[in-house]
Description:
C-type_lectin_CS
Amino acid sequence: MAEREIDADEDGDDNDDDDDDDDDDVDDDDGNDDSDDDGDDNGDDDDNGDDDDDNGDDEMMMMMMIMIMMIMMMLLLLMMIIMMMMMMMMTLMMMMMIMMMMMMMMMMMMMMMMMMMMRMMMMMMMVMMEMVIMRIRSNGSRWKRSSRAWLLEYGSEGQLACVQDQSGSKTYLESRDICNTSQAFLVAVKTAEKLDLVRTISGGNDRWVGLNDIAEEKVMVWEIDGANMTEEERQAVFPSHEPNDMNGREDCVQFRKHTQKLNDKSCAVKHGFICEIPLPSLT
Length: 283
């Protein structure tokens, strides 16, 4: 009995040991399962991390592409603005060229008009000169072709005139009447240039000219236009001490041979004279 109990106890102990071994095996199996689960979880976490990295790279790429597109759009817009400005500049240049062409055409038209006007003026001048010459020739022997007539232009006075030297011996009033009969005047010598002309056509001899103070003493008046002699005119054609109205009887003016300038003289003195017919003004 005792041996059976001992055997039974040993069997029981063996069973207990077997149970413990079984429990250990179960625990080991559970541990392995837990380890496997943890490994699976760690693998899942690694996969999630990779996915996050991929998503971040995609977002960066998208942002870079958007920025590149925006830069390209800005460059395109800038190019369009530059092209528009260039087109505007070209338009302005074309307008300026058109304006310059119009101005050139206007200038050419003005030049043509001026040339036409000059031609007309020259034709009118020639016609007037011819009329004056015909009138002179029709006024008798004093202005016939054989007489010494001069058709001239004296620029300082800005007009044309026909003058004639008369060598006959006449008083001032007789000379004036002869000129007036031919629709002329005793020559007006207002400038040094005209004085040279009188000297040339008179041969340097004494000649009556159209200036006197018969109406009012000391007030010299030109026959041709009734104007008073100015100080500037006096200095141009008289010596510094003339006119002096010697003895209060020198009321008429002559071209004097000895001084080759004008001189006041008694109107009763007789010598040659010079007549002048001014042409009508073209202005």
